C-alpha cells in the first residue's frame, strides 16, 4: 500500500512537471508568435503609418486569444487597436476602411471566406471595391499544415475560385508556425518556376528558441521581378467604329469568342509608356490584345495574368473600307483624350506630276549624271584633234550628239562606227537605255490610267502645310492654338473652324458619308494635365464589370506588387512633370508623325530595284574602255615612233650631207 502511494505521488509529480513544461512551451509559443506578429506589424504597418484592424474569423481558440492579448499589450501603447470577431460571415456587414491583421485557427475558414467571394457576397464587395490603396492583409494560421491544406484546396477547385481568390485582394502576407520556426511567406503569381500560378515565397523565419528573425526584417513593399512572365494588355475598341463598312467588319470578328490579337496596331501614349517602362524595370513581357465586345472583354479581363487597360492606339481604316477614308484614333486612360481624324478625298496627282513619279530621287540623279556625262564627252570632243574623233567615233560618224539622243529615246542608228570596240561601247549604251526606258514607260502608263491621291498628312504640321481645314470643338480651340504655336513656332497659321459639339458631329458624319468634297481634319483633344495626373492615379484601382475599366488593373488588386510598381512610375512621371516628359520624348501623338506602314499605291522604282542594270552596265563597259585606252596608247606610241623614225632619218641625212660637203671642200683645197 505504501509503495502504491509512492508510485501515485511520483506519477502526479511527473504529470505536474509535464503540465508545467507544456504550459511553459505554450507560453513560449504564444510569446514567440506574438513577438513575430508584433515585429511584422511594426515593420509593415506602424512604420509606414498604416492603420489596421484585428479580425478573428471563426471560433477563436485559447492560443489565438493569448496571441491577441500579447500583441495588443505590446502595441496598445503605440496605436489604438480594434478587434473584430467574425463568427457568421453570411450576416457580417462590417465596412473595412483600414488594413487588416487576419487571424484564424483553420484553413477551412479561409476556404469558406474564399467561396463566399464567388457569390458576390458583401464582404467580397467590400474587399474588392472599398479597400484603400495602401490596404494590406496579414494572415496568421496556427499550423503550417493548415495553410498547406488551403493550398491543396485551391489547386483542386475550378479556375473561377482561383480567380476569385486573386480578386479578393488579400492574404498577401501569411504567418505560419511549426515546431521550431514561425515563417513569414507571401503568395505570388510569379516566380522563377511559375508564371500565373501560386508560388509561396519564404520571406523570413523567426526562431522560437532564438527569439529572433534569421535576417533583418524588411518591408516587402512591392515585387520587383516578374521573371519575364507575360502580362496581356486587353484593349476594348467597341466604341471606335463609325461607318457601316467598319461595322460589317466588326461583326465578322465578333462571333469569334477567342481573344483577337492585331499585331499591326500601333499602340502609343502615356499608358503604353508607363507599361513599357514598368515592363523594363520589373521584368515582365507586355502582350497587347484587343477584344471587340464588352462582354468578351470583361470575361478575359478576369484571367490571372491579364491587365485591363484602354491604351492609346492608332487604327488605319483604309485596309477594311471601300471608301477613301482614313482615321487615326488615339485613346488614353482618362478625359485627356486625343482624336485625330483625316477625312478624304485628298488631292489627286496631276499628269505633269506623274512624269517624274516612276523613279525615286536617287535614281533620277544617277540617270541624269550618266546621260550628262555622255553628252559632256560628245561636246568636249568637238575641241579635240580630228585624229582623236576618227579613233573615238569612226570616220563615218559625223553627228555623235544626235546619235546619243536617238539612243536615249529609242530611235534607230543610221551610221555605226567601223571599229569593233566602238560598236561594242555603242551596244552597251543602247542596252542600258533600253532597260531604263522600258521601266519608265511601263510604270508611267500605269500611273496615267489610274487616279492616285497624294499621301495623307502624318502630323499637325503637315495639315497646315497641305492647307487642310482643321475642325475643332470650341472647348479645345484655345489649347490647340496655344500648343500649335509652340510646336510649329508660328511659321504658318492653320485654317481652323471652331464649332459646337453638335455641329461637329453632324459635319463629321457628312464628311465620312462623302457628302462634302473638302479636305477636313477633325481634331478633338484636351490638355488637362491636372486631370491626367489624378486620373492616372485613381484609375489604377477601378474595376467595374458594368463598364470598361478606365485604367490599369491587375486581377490581384489595388495593393498588389504590379500596381505598386506602376504607381511608382506614374508618381515619378508626375514629380518630373508629365508634360515635360511627353515633350522631351516626343510623345505628343498629334505632332509626331504616325509610324503606320501603309501600302503606297505608287509602285516607284528605287535604285535598289535598278541596281543590277547599273552594275552590269558599268562592269561591261569597263572592258571596252580598257581596250579603247589601249588603242589610244598604241596610236600615240606608234605616232611617236614614227616621229622618232623621221627625226632619225633626217638626222642621218643631215650628217650624210655634212660629210659629203666636208669631203667636197677637202678635195677642192687640194
Description:
This protein folds into four domains: 185 residues, Rossmann fold (3-Layer(aba) Sandwich), CATH 3.40.50.2300; 167 residues, no CATH class; 131 residues, no CATH class; 66 residues, no CATH class. With 670 residues, the chain is an alpha/beta fold. The protein contains 21 helices and 19 strands. The radius of gyration is 44 Å and the shape is elongated. Helices cover 48% and strands 15% of the residues. Helix 3 packs parallel to helix 5, helix 3 crosses helix 6 and helix 8 crosses helix 19.
Give a quick rundown of the structure.
By secondary structure, the protein is α/β, with parallel strands linked by helices.
Biggest sheet character: 8 strands, mixed
Helix percentage = 40-55%
The pLDDT mean sits at 58
CATH superfamily of the largest domain: Response regulator
Structural class: alpha/beta
* Helical segment count: 21
Strand order of the largest sheet: 2-1-3-4-5-6-7-8
Alpha-carbon Rg, integer: 44 Å
- Low-pLDDT stretches: 16-24, 116-135, 154-171, 234-269, 290-342, 525-561, 577-599
Approximate shape: elongated
| End-to-end distance | 193 Å
Membrane topology: Multi-pass membrane protein
Protein name: Ionotropic receptor
Signal peptide: 1-20
Transmembrane segments: 361-382, 424-445, 612-635, 647-665
Descriptors for this entry?
alpha/beta; Rossmann fold; 4 domains; eight-stranded mixed sheet; five-stranded mixed sheet; elongated
Amino acid at each position: 500500500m505504501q509503495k502504491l502511494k509512492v508510485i501515485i505521488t511520483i506519477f502526479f509529480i511527473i504529470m505536474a512537471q509535464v503540465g508545467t513544461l507544456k504550459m511553459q512551451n505554450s507560453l513560449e509559443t504564444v510569446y514567440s508568435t506574438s513577438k513575430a506578429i508584433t515585429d511584422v506589424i511594426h515593420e509593415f504597418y506602424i512604420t509606414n503609418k498604416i492603420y489596421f484592424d484585428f479580425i478573428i474569423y471563426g471560433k477563436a481558440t485559447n492560443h489565438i486569444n493569448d496571441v491577441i492579448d500579447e500583441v495588443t499589450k505590446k502595441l496598445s501603447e503605440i496605436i489604438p487597436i480594434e478587434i473584430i470577431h467574425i463568427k457568421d460571415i453570411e450576416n457580417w456587414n462590417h465596412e473595412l476602411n483600414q488594413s487588416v491583421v487576419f487571424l484564424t485557427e483553420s484553413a477551412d475558414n479561409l476556404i469558406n471566406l474564399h467561396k463566399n467571394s464567388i457569390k458576390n457576397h458583401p464582404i467580397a464587395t467590400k474587399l474588392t471595391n472599398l479597400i484603400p490603396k495602401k490596404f494590406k492583409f496579414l494572415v496568421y494560421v496556427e499550423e503550417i499544415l493548415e495553410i498547406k491544406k488551403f493550398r491543396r484546396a485551391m489547386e483542386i477547385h475550378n479556375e473561377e475560385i482561383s480567380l476569385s481568390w486573386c480578386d479578393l485582394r488579400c492574404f498577401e502576407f501569411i504567418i505560419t508556425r511549426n515546431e521550431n520556426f514561425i515563417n513569414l511567406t507571401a503568395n505570388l503569381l510569379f516566380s522563377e518556376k511559375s508564371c500565373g500560378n501560386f508560388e509561396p515565397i519564404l520571406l523570413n523565419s523567426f526562431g522560437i528558441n532564438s527569439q529572433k528573425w534569421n535576417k533583418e526584417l524588411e518591408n516587402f513593399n512591392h515585387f520587383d521581378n516578374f521573371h519575364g512572365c507575360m502580362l496581356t494588355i486587353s484593349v476594348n475598341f467597341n466604341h471606335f467604329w463609325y461607318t457601316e463598312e467598319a461595322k460589317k467588319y466588326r461583326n465578322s470578328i465578333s462571333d469569334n469568342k477567342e481573344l483577337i490579337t492585331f499585331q499591326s496596331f500601333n499602340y502609343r501614349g502615356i499608358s503604353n509608356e508607363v507599361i513599357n517602362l514598368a515592363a523594363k524595370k520589373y521584368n515582365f513581357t507586355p502582350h497587347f490584345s484587343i477584344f471587340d465586345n464588352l462582354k468578351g472583354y470583361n470575361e478575359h479581363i478576369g484571367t490571372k495574368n491579364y491587365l485591363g487597360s484602354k491604351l492609346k492606339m492608332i487604327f488605319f481604316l483604309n485596309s477594311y473600307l471601300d471608301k477613301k477614308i482614313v482615321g487615326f484614333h488615339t485613346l488614353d486612360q482618362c478625359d485627356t483624350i486625343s482624336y485625330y481624324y483625316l477625312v478624304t478625298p485628298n488631292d489627286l496627282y496631276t499628269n505633269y506630276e506623274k512624269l517624274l513619279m516612276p523613279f525615286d530621287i536617287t535614281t533620277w540623279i544617277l540617270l541624269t549624271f550618266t546621260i550628262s556625262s555622255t553628252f559632256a564627252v560628245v561636246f568636249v570632243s568637238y575641241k579635240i584633234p580630228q585624229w582623236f574623233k576618227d579613233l573615238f567615233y569612226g570616220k563615218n560618224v559625223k553627228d555623235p550628239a544626235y546619235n546619243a539622243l536617238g539612243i536615249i529615246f529609242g530611235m534607230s542608228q543610221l551610221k555605226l562606227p567601223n571599229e569593233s570596240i566602238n560598236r561594242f561601247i555603242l551596244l552597251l549604251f543602247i542596252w542600258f537605255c533600253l532597260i531604263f526606258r522600258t521601266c519608265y514607260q511601263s510604270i508611267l502608263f500605269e500611273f496615267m490610267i489610274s487616279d492616285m491621291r497624294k499621301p495623307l498628312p502624318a502630323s499637325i504640321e503637315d495639315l497646315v502645310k497641305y492647307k487642310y481645314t482643321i475642325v475643332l470643338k470650341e472647348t479645345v480651340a484655345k489649347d490647340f492654338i496655344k500648343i500649335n504655336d509652340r510646336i510649329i513656332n508660328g511659321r504658318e497659321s492653320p485654317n481652323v473652324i471652331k464649332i459646337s459639339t453638335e455641329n461637329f458631329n453632324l459635319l463629321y458624319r457628312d464628311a465620312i458619308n462623302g457628302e462634302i468634297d473638302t479636305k477636313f481634319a477633325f481634331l478633338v483633344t484636351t490638355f488637362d494635365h491636372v486631370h491626367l495626373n489624378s486620373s492616372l492615379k485613381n484609375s489604377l484601382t477601378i474595376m467595374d464589370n458594368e463598364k470598361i475599366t478606365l485604367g490599369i488593373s491587375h486581377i490581384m488588386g489595388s495593393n498588389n506588387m504590379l500596381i505598386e510598381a506602376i504607381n511608382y512610375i506614374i508618381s515619378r512621371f508626375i514629380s518630373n512633370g508629365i508634360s515635360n516628359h511627353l515633350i522631351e520624348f516626343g510623345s505628343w501623338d498629334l505632332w509626331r508623325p504616325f509610324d503606320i506602314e501603309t501600302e503606297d499605291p505608287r509602285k516607284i522604282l528605287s535604285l535598289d530595284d535598278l541596281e543590277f542594270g547599273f552594275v552590269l552596265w558599268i562592269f561591261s563597259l569597263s572592258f571596252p574602255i580598257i581596250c579603247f585606252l589601249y588603242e589610244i596608247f598604241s596610236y600615240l606610241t606608234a605616232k611617236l615612233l614614227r616621229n622618232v623614225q623621221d627625226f632619225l632619218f633626217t638626222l642621218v641625212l643631215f650628217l650624210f650631207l655634212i660629210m659629203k660637203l666636208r669631203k667636197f671642200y677637202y678635195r677642192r683645197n687640194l
